[in-house]
Design brief:
heterodimer; A: about 260 residues; mainly alpha; 2 domains; two-stranded antiparallel ribbon; about 70% helix; about 5% strand; B: about 230 residues; alpha/beta; Rossmann fold; four-stranded antiparallel beta sheet
């Protein structure tokens, strides 16, 4: 069974793909921090940030359709946070919303906050998509390792990446087995069956974890993971980081005048 | 010949109370090829897991004269390579290279040595060029080969293999048997693929419900039709 991978476009060839993972991780973090620290009223700055990340995405040759689809993933979360804010925030009123018999007051402060949350999470997620889809997952892990992320997190991520698809396969097989014996009707009872499937999946994943741990112990694992890496920080990376910092500073300075 | 495995009165029961091994006595000499046969649930896997101290039951297990206990585990695990039935349990790293290098890195070998060993064993199992492949993308036969490489890279003296041919197609099965035949170390193979045992092993141990039902030369045990059928084989 085949699945599309998190790093589906990591095998493309572009200047961004060639960068050291550390460079990309650091610049993504700086970018996000810059975006988050921008006041919501500085619309010009947000536009510049957007143009910058768009340019990077274009250079990276990752299809924009894919990027946009991916970025939609965050909207359910944003909506959950955002939907109540305009009504809760006190301040100058922007208007009223009538839902049946309920009258809701919408404030300007609240609307700014909604904008603030949406634009910042959107730009941040674009930066993450750029990082994630131009970097092979293993190499990303190596980068994080060299940046001294605790090994526990690294291992958790590595195991997730390794076993996610196996667990998805298992779930698919169980669902198939269920479908082949399900002839419609009794929709409510199916919910119970699905909860059984989820429970079973958990047990199987747990047991697989046990066996994988045994096989690690059998090869001399003593709670300290040792890895091997040969990722190199080159002149290209230094140049990119300088350019990147210059752009970020430029956006900030321009923001003051615009 | 030197006795390299000595097991005395080994018993093990799982926490649910199922007795998996019941007073097992077993010895193996250097260079022997021993098949462990028995029906499903006979205790074959549990037996193998005792060889390098993953499980520790009541009784004594000695490998190269060393008792299996916490202080000796590191040395013993270097000497006994264990290959699990499901290669997805064995291959837990992102890439083939990382997995094959896992054992040698745990042995604190220098990076150059690790790299040359990885290359060497991948050549041995016919998987050279797959270093950067993601294990999930390999076929089962390829996964089995890489699983063997992950253990060979530690240069063990004893190789314990759980169901090497399970789920393989006939072609893959044949090439795996050929690969195992060319290995020089002591082999312990747990399986109910009797024809493979016949091709590879000189001595057979028949397990059923955690007990040794019979022990002897391959032809003697596998040729005894009544005994085999009584034990679900």
């Amino acid at each position: 069974m085949e699945h599309s991978f998190i790093d589906k476009y990591s095998k493309l060839d572009s200047p961004i793909h060639k960068l050291d993972p550390k460079t990309k991780i650091i610049s993504a973090i700086i970018y996000i921090v810059c975006v988050v620290l921008t006041p919501p009223q500085a619309i010009a700055e947000f536009i510049l940030f957007f143009i910058f990340i768009l340019a990077m995405l274009l250079i990276s040759k990752v299809p924009l359709r894919f990027v946009m689809k991916r970025s939609l993933v965050i909207f359910p979360f944003i909506l959950l946070v955002v939907v109540f804010i305009p009504f809760l925030k006190k301040g100058e009123l922007a208007g009223f919303l009538n839902v049946g018999t309920i009258h809701l007051a919408v404030s300007y402060g609240g609307l700014w906050m909604v904008w603030n949350v949406i634009v910042k999470s959107f730009l941040s997620v674009l930066a993450m998509i750029l990082l994630g889809s131009t970097t092979n997952f293993q190499i990303l892990l190596k980068g994080l390792e060299q940046l001294h992320l605790p090994k526990v997190f690294l291992m958790t991520l590595a195991f997730m990446y390794r076993y996610l698809f196996i667990i998805v396969d298992e779930a698919m097989r169980m669902e198939r087995a269920h479908k082949s014996r399900y002839f419609g009707g009794q929709a409510l009872r199916q919910i119970r069956i699905f909860s059984n499937i989820i429970g079973l999946l958990f047990i199987r994943a747990y047991e697989r974890g046990e066996r994988a741990y045994q096989s690690m112990c059998a090869r001399g694992f003593d709670r300290e993971i040792k890895t091997f890496s040969r990722v190199k920080f080159t002149l290209r990376d230094g140049a990119y980081l300088c350019l990147f910092l210059a752009v970020m500073a430029g956006v900030k300075i321009l923001g003051v005048y615009l | 010949m030197k006795k390299i495995i000595e097991i005395r009165n080994l018993s093990y029961s799982y926490s649910e109370g199922n007795v998996a091994l019941d007073k097992i006595n077993f010895e193996a000499e250097e260079g022997e090829r021993i098949g462990i046969v028995g029906p499903n649930g006979a205790g074959k896997t549990t037996f193998l897991l005792h060889l390098n101290g993953i499980l520790r039951g009541k009784g004594g297990v000695k490998i190269f004269g060393l008792e299996v206990k916490s202080a000796n585990l590191y040395t013993i695990r270097k000497m006994v390579g264990l290959i699990f039935q499901d290669p997805d349990d064995q291959l837990f790293s992102p890439t083939v290279f990382d997995d094959v290098a896992f054992g040698p890195l745990n042995m604190d070998l220098p990076p150059d040595e690790v790299e040359s060993r990885v290359r060497e064993v991948l050549r041995e199992v016919g998987m050279l060029g797959f270093e950067q492949k993601f294990s999930y993308h390999l076929s089962l036969g390829e996964k089995k080969r890489v699983a063997i490489a992950t253990v060979l890279s530690m240069r063990p003296e004893i190789l314990a293999f759980d169901e090497p041919t399970a789920n393989l197609d006939p072609g893959m099965r044949r090439s795996l048997i050929k690969l195992l035949r060319n290995l020089q170390m002591t082999l312990i193979i747990a399986s109910h693929d009797l024809s493979m045992i016949e091709q590879l092993c000189t001595r057979v141990l028949l397990l059923n419900k955690g007990k040794i039902m019979a022990e002897g030369s391959t032809s003697e045990i596998l040729g005894n039709k009544k005994l085999m059928e009584e034990n679900g084989l």
